[in-house]
Amino acid sequence: MRSRTVTRTILALAVVALLSGILSPTLVSAQQIVLRAADNQPPDYPTVQGLVFMANYLEAASGGRIRMEVYPGGQLGDERSTIEQVQLGVIDIVRTSTSPVGEFYAPMGVYSLPYIFRNETHMWKVVQGPIGRQLLDGLKGSGLVGLAYYDSGSRSFYTNKKPIRDVADLEGLRIRTQQSRVVLDMMEALGARPVPMAYEEVYSALQTGAIDGAENNFPSYGPRGVRHYEVAPYFSLDQHARVPEIVMISLQTWNRLSREDQDLIREAALASVPVQAALWRDLVAESRRAVEAAGSEIIDVNVEEFQAAMGPLYEKYGKAYGDLLQRILDTK
Q: Where is the signal peptide (predicted)?
């Protein structure tokens, strides 16, 4: 309820600003424009609500001339297929993790490297600064136009028998991981034993002790997710992955728009960023309160110690990104 209230409040402010002449977009044509936008998350999820705000902003700012239809819940396909459809112009707009975008535009894969962001503030400084803008602009060569970044929080380790307080505590632990070479290499660098398995099998594996831990964000760990807090009560905030989300529009769609409409769509996307980020923070806080109330122990760790163990991994993967990795690490 609070999330919907936040969205309505900010939308109301945008409409008031428009009527007051603050936004004053230029309407260059009376022709109706309808944009289709895809998201694989459920309707009440922060990224979907971010797109809904963007749609409402566009409709209000254009006097109803530009409409954006949001299709949540994977109605138009999974992340990879919707990216492909946006490339082809079948879908106009997509919200996805930047992780699969790296398959279409390699430099975007730098965001998937572990521990490259020290915290949330560092992440926003990077993606909203020259580096983030460079990567958004670079998408055009892949038939995509980057509009804005959204927040997806961070992933951390959680365990069933003992807490992880420092890198040494991971030695020999069997941790469920995704089937990703980078993630497997991260586990090896930390001394853990990666155990790739289907997500649906993790709860029972934690419960029976077949694995010692897993990793994810608070909403997934908590009661609104897969409830792993019930069988793994130690949540260590190492925040090894902080992969931002991205909103993109088809280059084919973009090229059919006037410059004024392009500017308005980008403006609407950027206006939706603080809305989505606020909803995400609310969801994380709600999830954290719930698992703490249920008895989970939240452990703060020295993230720099974990990051220091990534030297070999950065050496292995950093070359593929030129100076991007070092520029991100150096951002203050």
A: none
